[in-house]
Design goal:
four-stranded mixed beta sheet, alpha+beta, Pnp Oxidase, Chain A, globular, 7 helices, nine-stranded antiparallel beta sheet
């Protein structure tokens, strides 16, 4: 019998059905390449056939990081009564093949949990998924099949504003009127100079012909990335209206006067928070953050006189591309895109959905 080849991740647990109840133990081994061993965190085995290709009667079973969470969605067994493979299927097959259909349900659950416990004890020890204390298994694989037809509105070249800033203002006002929660929320995407992206939700705090503004800690991850690579994209998603707006462009800092004006419009606790948080840095615990807040609130007792930290201020995205997306039936959405022309004006294009 040939050796399993691939990255070592070991045989996870042995199960001996000859004793009353299941007895699990940790042994060693290797995973082989191929569909059977893909995403493996180990194998369950009940005899000395460890390290050989599994087959009927071999007594080995692959436990995958994506198939164990369903408590063995399907199990096949060899002639020696041991599990030999796992694949998707009906749960009834589990009990039938394990000979547990006539057992007390409590015993059945206990036996399966014993196997599960052995699997994840090994996975953690062998450098597999690290679980928080109290976790018993990683999240089950998830797929989603929700479907929604978009039928509220259309977007065409004849009705759209020729100035994309005006078009954005019209859609933003419609989102406010429709009661969209936090219509100013936008996903800000940045990237390092070598192209590693990151994204987070921030709040739009002003827009005009110059661009779209938000405020943050310049020493945060997004602040550092924008300092090194001054280009960004933002996305608004107003699901109630079945609309998106995507904006891309270069990024510049707002003036100190603009940052001061917005900073002093914030609640005093938010201004103290700007001093207190070493944004994006690792901190020991929540108590450390609250201690900083208490310290700076003590240092600035006059709420009206809390100064803006030098490391905090605004960014403006100067748009080079603005796309308006309107959901339509059959996924044939309307996408109208404005691109900045060389003369400073805008070119309007329709994009395929």
């Amino acid at each position: 019998m040939s050796r399993w080849r691939g990255s070592p991740c070991g045989v996870v647990a042995g199960v001996d059905r000859s004793k009353k109840g299941f007895r699990a133990h940790v042994v060693d081994g290797q995973a082989r390449r191929g569909d059977f061993a893909r995403n493996a965190i180990g194998f369950v085995a009940g005899n000395e056939s460890i390290g050989t290709n599994p087959g009927p009667g071999s007594g080995a079973v692959l436990i995958s990081s994506t198939n164990f969470g369903a408590v063995f969605s399907k199990i096949l067994m060899g002639s020696d009564g041991m599990i030999v493979s796992v694949a998707s299927g009906q749960g009834a097959m589990i009990m039938s093949r394990l000979g547990l259909l006539d057992c007390d349900p409590v015993l059945v659950i206990g036996r399966l949990l014993l196997i599960q416990k052995a699997v994840f004890l090994y996975a953690t020890a062998a450098g597999g998924p690290r679980l928080r204390q109290g976790d018993e298994r990683p999240m089950d694989p998830r797929t989603t099949h929700a479907r929604k037809e978009y039928e509220q509105a259309a977007l065409d070249e004849a009705s759209v504003e020729r100035d994309p800033i005006r078009q954005f203002a019209a859609w933003y006002d419609a989102a406010v009127a429709a009661g969209v929660p936090e219509p100013e929320a936008m996903t800000l995407s940045t990237a390092t100079p070598d192209g590693r992206p990151s994204a987070r939700v921030v709040l739009l705090r002003g827009f005009d012909a110059r661009g779209f503004c938000f405020f943050t800690n310049y020493e945060s991850r997004k602040g550092r990335e924008l300092g090194a690579n001054p280009h960004a994209a933002v996305t608004f998603h107003w699901a109630v209206l079945e609309r998106q707006v995507r904006i891309e462009g270069r990024v510049e800092r707002t003036t100190a006067a603009e940052s001061d004006e917005y900073f002093h419009s914030r609640p005093s606790t938010s201004r103290i928070g700007a001093w207190s948080s070493p944004q994006s840095e690792v901190i020991p615990d929540r108590a450390a953050l609250e201690a900083l807040f208490t310290r700076y609130r003590t240092e600035h007792p006059d709420e009206a006189a809390i100064p803006r930290p030098d490391h905090w201020g605004g960014f403006r995205i100067v748009p080079e591309r603005i796309e308006f997306w309107q959901g339509r039936p059959s996924r044939l959405h309307d996408r109208l895109c404005f691109r900045r022309a060389s003369d400073g004006g805008w070119t309007l294009e329709r994009l395929a959905p």
